[in-house]
Every structure is written in structure tokens, then in C-alpha cells.
Amino acid sequence: MKVLWCSLAAIAIHASVGLTDNENRNILAVTSPAWLANVPTPTQGAVVTQYPKDDDIKTGTLKEGTYPIDLNKYPKPLKLPPTDHPEVQEALKHIDWSKVPQIEPRKIKNYIVDTSGYDSKSDPDCWWTASTCKKPKLSYIPEDIYACPQPGQWGLNYDDGPLRIWSHDEEKKKWQEPRFYNYMVEHGKQKATLFYIGSNVITYPEAAQRALSDGHTICAHTWSHKQMTTLTNEEIVAEMYWTHKAIKEVLGITPKCWRPPYGDVDDRVRSIVWQMGMSTIIWDQDSNDWNLYGTPARGKVAPETIDKHFQDWISKRVNKQDNLHGHITLQHENSNSTVSMAERWLPKVQEAFDVMPIHKCLNDPYPYWEQSWAYPTVDNPSPPLNAQDPTSPQKPGGSSGSSSTQSGQQQSVGSTTVSTTSGAEPYLRTFALYAAMITLTLGLFA
């Protein structure tokens, strides 16, 4: 039996500050995504295969079309993908549907999810849209990550990238990446967590590769940015399958993290995505930059309104009124409006907070299944190159070719070596090791 990162890292870190209660949850064991084993990975030299050295991170330009992806192998960008594709059908076979609650897909009313008629007080489905619930009613699903544990920490993150401006107007195109990625390099080589839309990854792979090479952490943000609770089970799998395939083909990594668009998640969605290998990350502060003039949401909020949010957050921190825990603040890289806002406030946030990617504040160095990736954490700011998760079982020769399922069956996760990053890191630990680690850290399961 094996367990996921969230049932270890969140126990050891979040519990100490009261952010989650995963130590009292019987987290469902899952295995690394076998349904990605045959996805091709980037050609040699196209993208980094381990966390980069700071000396190698530099500003620069990008030329579109230098790393072409065959779009015919994918669904239409930003459209709900079909569920009858053979690859989706194969992914569906890897879900234990007895662990997925029978919750009817939600309805859309006036362009938003309709919460009328739902009992948000008892909140039987832990539906975030209706109640901001982050602790699943199902005890075998870990709680959502929504804040950094220590006061003063700012888990920097941006949704909806990588940003490409589809225009022949050069004045408009200057806002597309790598503009903001260059900006972060210029401001202390700042690293962030980037929640990528799969469609954007395949239509602008060069920008995604640049972000990974800059040391940013990449997480999934679905294929078409739909409200996930409104989709069928099969549609949820299709959304996440194509997103993961795009990220793996372009970047050679398999993220263990995702964020639901609009925060729209319930226990049905959580159960499916958890079994596909991902922990759910929400936020505790919303900048509302998505509602600015000029954004894809056709927002109506003036920049001054967003400025006020940042001013208040910084003021509370400076005046020592913000001492409960750190923050994960919702921001976007989806338009000139949001990029401009991000550029305006990043230096000021850096002055008031300890700014870092989300996984760094969680002390989790392994955001991907691939074993060659180890990121800096608060406790270990200098991870070794070619690092491997020391708790992951290894086959002789360093391959992560298989991992045991909960029932003891063997499940293939790819046969190539770690250096090519096409094998998947066993995201799970053996039950004996799990119990030992918990005993050492918290005195549980002794």
C-alpha cells in the first residue's frame, strides 16, 4: 500500500499550523499515472530535465514556432474535449469508480454555476463554490492546500498561462510571454507556481519550456478552463488527461498538483483528480485581477480596486496584523491587464513578504512524478542536482519503471530511465515506510 505526497507533507507541515487535518484521514492510495507511459517527451536539449542553476537563468526573447507540436493529435484548444477518444478511454480504466461519489453534475445559469437549491450549510459534497469548503467529506481524500503555513510567506502563483497574444499588432503582442518571465528574472530571479492550461501549452510550447527553464513550478489548470463540477465524470478525466499529456510532451514532467478553474471543485471532482495523481490547490486571498478591464472574463473592475487589495495585505503584514499563517493569492497571466498588475505589485510584495513558489513554503521538493526534479524548500534551499525522492522505491539502475498499487498488483508507469524524464516517479510510499515516517514526525501510527 502506498500513499501520496499530500498525506505526508500536509500532515507534517499543515497540521502544525492548523491548516489541515490530514493526519486523521485515511488517505486513498494511488499510483503514478500509468496512462501517460506512452506519451513522447521533449527532444534532447529542448528543455531542462532538472532544476536549473541560478547562473543559467537569464532574460531573453522567444521565437514562436521553434518547437512545433502536432495539434492534430489533440482536441481543439480551449474546447471541451470529447470522451470517446481511445486515450481517454484508457485513462478511464485507471479510476476506481467505487471511490467516486454519485454527485450529479452542476448546472450553469447566467454563465456561472448555479448554487441555488444546494444546502451550503450542511454542505454534503464539500462544494467550494457554494461554501468555500476545503476539507472533503470523504475521509480518503486529502484536504485542499490553500495557504502557506508560516506567517510572512507569500506563495506566488499565476493562473491561465502561458500567455500568448493572438494578434498581428506588435504593441499588443509585447505583453505576451516571455515578458513577465523576464520581469521575474530581473527582480531577483523570482520563482512562482504556474497553473497552466493544457491548450495554451501546446499552442505556445516555447513559453512553457522557458518557464520550466527559469525554475518555476508547473501545475495543471485543465484543458478548456470549464467549471469542473458541471462536467460528467468522463469529461473531467478528458480535461485532465489532455492537460497532462500536453505538459508531458512539451516539458517532460508530470505535475502532482492542479487548480480547478474558478475554484469550482467538490468531492466528486477531487476523487477523480486525486486518483489521476494530483493534489488540489486553492487560495486564501483573491486579487480579483481576473475581473479587470481587458481580461478574458470581460471584467468591469478598475485597477485601483485591485491596488486596494494589495495595499491592504501589505499594510496588515507591515503593521504586524497578519500573523496567523502565510498566503496563496490568486493572480493571473492571461492578459495585458493582469500582467501589468503583476508587474506593478511584485516588487512591493517582495519587500513585505517572503515570496516563494507554493511547494517551497510547503517544504515539498517533489512537485512532479519524475525523480530527476527536486526543488528548493524552506528547510533545504539547495537541493542536489539529479536528486531523487529518497522515500521512492527504485528498480535497479535508477528506473522508475513500476510501482505497486494498493492491492499489490504491479502497474506499469513507463520503461525509460530517469534522465529522459519519461518514466514516472512513484508518487507513493510503501505502507511500512509511510507508518515509519508518520511515527517519527508526529508520533502517529506507532
From TrEMBL:
**Gene3D superfamilies referenced in this protein's UniProt entry, alphabetically:** Glycoside hydrolase/deacetylase (3.20.20.370)
Q: Where is this region: Disordered?
A: 379-421
Q: List the SUPFAM superfamilies.
A: Glycoside hydrolase/deacetylase
Q: What is the lineage of its organism?
A: Eukaryota, Fungi, Fungi incertae sedis, Mucoromycota, Mucoromycotina
The protein in question is named Chitin deacetylase
State whether keyword Signal applies: yes
Q: Name one GO biological process term.
A: fungal-type cell wall biogenesis
The source's superkingdom equals: Eukaryota
Keywords of this entry: Signal
Q: Give GO terms: molecular function aspect only.
A: chitin deacetylase activity
Which residue intervals are annotated with compositional bias (Low complexity) in the record?
391-421
